[in-house]
Amino acid sequence: MRFDPMAQSPRRIAVKGFMLAIVCCCSWQWDGHETATAAEQSEPVFRAGAAKVEVKTPMGMPIVGNWNSPPATHVHDELHVRCLLLDDGQTRIAFAICDNVGIPREVFDAARNLIDAETDVDAENVLMAATHTHSGVSARDTRTVDGEQILSTYQQLLARRIADAVVNAEQRLQPAKIAWGSVDVPSEVHNRRWYVKDESLLDNPFGGVDKVRMNPPSSSDALIKPAGPTDPEVSFISVQTSDGAPLALLANYSLHYVGGVPAGEISADYFAAFSERIGGLLAAQGDADFVGILTNGTSGDVNNIPFGSKNRTSKEPYQRIEEVSKLVAEKVAAACQSIQYQDWVPLASAHAELTLEMRKPDPEMQRYFASLQGAGRDPDNIHRHAMTYAKRIERLQAGPDESTILLQAFRIGDLGVMSIPFEVFAETGLDLKKRSPLPDAFTIELANGSYGYLPTPRQHELGGYETWMGTNRVQLDASDRITDVLLSLSQQIAPND
After folding, report:
1. Which pTM does this prediction carry?
2. Structural domain range at position 284
3. What confidence tier does 377 reach under pLDDT thresholds 50, 70, 90?
4. Closest to 139 in 3D by CA, of 78, 53, 65
């Protein structure tokens, strides 16, 4: 059931009505002296709360994120929802980040309805996102685009746990101080789309030839140059209690995931490893209330493979996860030593829905895939993923013509945070940072939905896995339209001066 922001829960209406009654009943008593005292007492207090809740993984469910989906047989580290809630005395905003590869909007909407009914947080002020771990079970069920099916048992559990994280964070609200900053960690981000000399690396499932290849052989002499940039910046929000104790830290890094997890094992990847490590580095050891969070930036074309390196060595399972999370956490912890905490900053949010056209196969593409079904077709002469994409194209053809997505922009003092429900290319994130009306900004991807990859129009011209119909599902200029809406939303909440 889609969340309706105009339908307030009875609980919130009752609370707001009670607060209004208090103001109306007490106002007649004020004189000049009492007014001054009340003014002093009414100075806003900045508060924050954070929580982490576990999402139990049923064994046997498929682990998604690769071409095959082995069943979950073992939990290396359990999956969680981590939440940071901020309150400036007038506005509350929350970030609920889930260890999952990608979550349909229907699940987030179900969580939003629970949050609306059970908290005093305006549910449209909650950003919910997946981290994009490739070693977790699917929240997608059988759908590929938004639909009206009843949520599966696991989807209902996930929605419930997202709401629980927000409820728990609200219950832990306390006076707090806040600061934000950033640090560059360029060594761990590499663009995975490459121009190559060898045309045999450029075949696609549609019977054509691309101009670039996703994840080519990493040490091949055929490599020419990457097809796009990376974003090395780790942005972060650090929150302390009013007496200076670490309370929470939310970071954002544009790295797809790290991997190195054995088949069948459940892991939240380096996102969770960072989240656990940062608390110790900030001297929050043993403090069960501290919550570290790592969100995924704009990393749709970025991974952790150093293409072109001739000196790569094999790693043990989880080794790279530990190495990357340690480096990023240490860099962030060091940067925290030079940021200035503030006792109060203004909060604001804006959101909009944007309807996008879904891509559909043209007659030529339909004829091509129909020809692959014929008897006697030599499987050695077709792309190894052709039949996978034949099924994806068939689902797109039978699916809806449009999809409506939720976009959000938040203001935390002079910091802007934006959300996009796609796997976003680094150049889009860099463009949003450059053009944001706020001095600092970052984007969280796979937020409030999961609609596939979001190449830019320029990248669509180059082809490659992320642009293939069925991997990308929406109109080719969608990234430009989304950027325009987000900048407009950010302008609405930016300071006027």
Report:
1. 0.92
2. 47-189+226-355+401-493
3. low
4. 65
